[in-house]
Structures are given as C-alpha cells and as structure tokens.
Amino acid sequence: MLLEKSWEELSYGLKMRVLELVIALCKYQTLVHPREINVYLEDVTELDAIRALLNRCTLTTEYPLDRHLGKGRPSSASTDIPGKALSLYIRAVISDTLLSSTAWFH
User: Fold this and answer.
1) Where in the sequence is the domain holding 82, given as residue range(s)?
2) pLDDT tens-place string over residues 53-71
3) Which residues lie below 8 Å from residue 65, measured CB to CB, with a gap of 6+?
4) What is the enclosing helix (H) or strand (E) of 12?
5) What is the separation, in whole angstroms, between the first and last Cα of the chain?
C-alpha cells in the first residue's frame, strides 16, 4: 500500500531508498539514451560521490560576475581588475538524466 508523505516526514532510511531509486533511474536513462552511454561516462552517478561534492559546494541561484568584471561594489580580489579573465573550474557534472530523474520523482 502506498501512502503519500512529504520529504520531511520520511525517515533517514526511506530518504536513502528514494535517493537510490533516483540514481537507479538515472543510470537506466543513460543506458537507453539515444546519445548512448559514452556521453555520460564522466557524470557523477554514485550517491556517496554526489553527497561529497554537494557538501563541499556553496549553492546559489546566481553568481555575481559583475564583481569580477570591475562593476558593482569594490573588492580586494585580484579577479576584480577590469579586462582580466575569470578562471572557472568544473569539478563534476550532474547530468541531465539525474536532474530529470529527480524531477520525475518530485
């Protein structure tokens, strides 16, 4: 029997089960995707690895690039010099299949 519960009402064990189901659906989508699995080889799809990455991140909906382009409030960071290139390092990719799996479960 299925009962609807909010995320906050679930026990830690049930939350882990839901997350494992989301990851399983993500992996399945990569296997049957028309672009084939080779496109997704570098994507992070292990729950522990995703958790470790997200724990080290500062999540924000937007990044204030104007500070790095010499606009906005002044800062002492060396990247605030107008015309200077901004270096961006991508540490990991959370794929579209993981995001669509999460949206589907939501």
Assistant:
1) 7-105
2) 878 877 666 767 666 665 5
3) 86
4) helix 12-32
5) 19
